[in-house]
Write a structure and sequence with these properties.
Layout: E1 19-20, E2 29-36, E3 39-45, E4 48-55, E5 59-64, E6 67-72, E7 77-81, E8 84-91, E9 95-102, H1 104-115, E10 123-124, E11 127-131, H2 133-145, H3 150-171, E12 173-174, H4 188-200, H5 208-214, H6 219-230, H7 234-252, H8 257-263, H9 269-280, H10 284-289
Antiparallel strand pairs: 1-2, 2-9, 3-8, 4-7, 4-9, 5-6, 5-8, 7-11, 10-12
Helix pairs in contact: 1-3, 2-3, 3-7, 5-6, 7-8, 8-9
């Protein structure tokens, strides 16, 4: 099995991950890909940790707070370990897993802002060996985000992180929450402010927090209200505007493609080319020559 061995303080108590989002400094989450065998470790849990098995069939022994379990895991199985006391993990077989570490403060913020929870906050419940297609999907999308353009993908990563926290609160909290959609709406004035901010900052590292601040709303309420008003989540709207702006620059200017990449918030020519091709089906150079 693969374990969330790296703590929030950056110290590592086991093998280095094959991939890690730590250098990206994503809000509220660290995503890692691990491969390990012959594991016998006691791991502290400062974060809520979601592990998704993507290869191998480990026979896993877990012990925590006086309770133990023996489970044979399969691909797609999910293990949820809430923040708290240490857990003893043991198995011999090699396995690969995606590890999602969510900061408790981030999950609590989502609970308050999206679930309107006051007073005692819900507790995430430990779960071993459950199939959850939504968590598996989010985990794979977050893992793919490690290798994508950091500036162009940040809004998308924030959206996935928020969806994961909401999913845990809806389905793995005690007491279980019935999470309704926020009722706040985005006024025409606030929507205009948000869109003007996006248009003026397509080259910048946009985040939900910055967009929400432009509309004078909380990030989570803004995301829902923006989608309600425009029909698109913020990350998709921003991506569409970046692609359209890039098309305009390709058609009407002689700017080098590397410079156009910077104008639409991409870190490099190659990242921009991949993003543009995914959105349009053609490379920027091909689009320019045919328009």
């Amino acid at each position: 099995m693969v374990f969330p061995i790296t703590g929030s303080d950056g110290r590592t108590g086991g093998p280095e991950p094959l991939l890690s989002s730590r250098s990206r400094q994503w809000e509220g989450i660290v995503v890692e890909l691990h491969r390990a065998r012959n594991v016998d470790v006691l791991i502290p849990y400062p974060d809520h940790v979601v592990s998704v098995v993507v290869a191998g069939v480990p026979n896993l022994y877990l012990a925590r707070d006086g309770s133990t379990s023996h489970t044979t895991l399969r691909c797609g199985d999910v293990i949820i370990t809430s923040a708290g006391g240490p857990t003893h993990w043991r198995h011999k077989e090699e396995a690969v897993a995606i590890i999602l570490r969510l900061a408790p403060t981030y999950v609590d913020k989502v609970a308050v802002e999206d679930c309107a929870v006051h007073g005692q906050l819900p507790e995430i419940q430990d779960t071993v060996g459950k199939q959850d297609e939504r968590i598996e999907e989010i985990a794979k999308q977050l893992l793919a985000g490690i290798e994508s353009d950091p500036r162009a993908s940040r809004l998308y990563i924030e959206s996935l992180t928020h969806q994961l926290a909401l999913h845990l609160l809806r389905h793995y909290s005690a007491p279980g929450l019935t999470v309704g959609k926020p009722t706040l709406k985005l006024s025409r004035r606030k929507l205009c402010h948000a869109i003007e901010f996006i248009e003026a900052n397509l080259s910048q590292d946009l985040t939900h927090s910055r967009l929400a601040a432009a509309a004078a709303m909380s990030p989570s309420h803004f995301a829902h209200a923006f989608r309600q008003a425009t029909g698109l989540p913020p990350h998709r709207y921003v991506l569409n505007r970046r692609i359209e702006h890039a098309k305009t620059l390709l058609r009407h200017t002689d700017l080098p493609i590397t410079e156009i990449a910077q104008h639409v918030g991409c870190c490099s020519h190659s990242n921009f080319t991949a993003l543009f091709h995914k959105a349009t089906g053609v490379a920027p150079s091909h689009y320019r020559s045919n328009n």
